[in-house]
Design a protein that fits this description.
Elements lengths: L1 H17 L12 E10 L7 E16 L2 E15 L2 E5 L2 E24 L5 E17 L15 E14 L2 E9 L16 E11 L2
Antiparallel strand pairs: 1-2, 1-9, 2-3, 3-5, 4-5, 5-6, 6-7, 7-8, 8-9
Length: 204
């Protein structure tokens, strides 16, 4: 009798193991690297010719097909032009900008995703703190001038990206009103730019 009960319990244990359902592992790509070419628009087109931007974001899932990306972007400015800058009661011309930096986050949503999850189209709505770096003129008469002519502002952006096996193509519009917190530069300084680029994403 004891042997019979042992066999029954053993059979029930095997059957229970066969019916266990393991939850699906979420394998979305958490690390994102982007490289893009940017063109300033409107009045901002008078401040520099173009930019090359490298961005790194870390993705966190918040809902089905919805994410928050936290990261930073560093831009090299190509052919920055000098700009007028008020110091006291006089105007000086700053040397052309050579770099820009953005620290912020994006809300990402998958609009389309294939069943095997290897292809998707996503939108990115971003916000962050951005600065456009300038330097005072190198002329000796400005050596004792204590100024840090960096333009800080809040930037918002909207983009779209097409991704296949972790590699993507993206287009992004950014609005950065540089005069929002700085009245020392010309009133119509410019704020708009557009970026086109490629991206790669992976998990460590």
């Amino acid at each position: 009798m004891s042997k019979f009960l042992f066999l029954v319990l053993f059979a029930l244990q095997i059957n229970a193991q066969d019916t266990i359902v393991f939850p699906k592992v979420d394998v979305f790509k958490r690390n994102i690297l982007e490289v893009s070419y940017g063109k300033p628009l409107g009045d901002l087109a008078n401040k520099y010719e173009s930019s090359i931007t490298t961005a790194f974001y870390m993705r966190t899932k918040i809902a089905k097909k919805q994410f928050i990306d936290f990261g930073a972007e560093l831009s090299g400015i190509v052919k920055g032009n000098g700009v007028d800058y008020k110091v006291g009661n006089e105007n000086i011309q700053l040397d052309g900008s050579k770099s820009a930096f953005l620290l912020g986050f994006r809300y990402t949503r998958f609009l389309i995703q294939s069943k095997d999850e290897n292809f998707h189209i996503e939108t990115n709505s971003g916000m962050g703190w951005k600065y456009l770096h300038y330097a005072k003129p190198e002329d000796e008469i400005y050596d004792e001038l204590d100024i840090k002519p960096t333009l800080n502002t809040i930037a918002v952006s909207q983009g779209i990206k097409i991704v296949l096996y972790g590699f993507g193509l993206h287009c992004n519009y950014q609005y950065s009103p540089y005069t929002l917190f700085n009245s020392k530069v010309e009133r119509n300084f410019g704020a708009s730019s557009i970026n086109f680029g490629i991206s790669g994403s992976w998990n460590f």
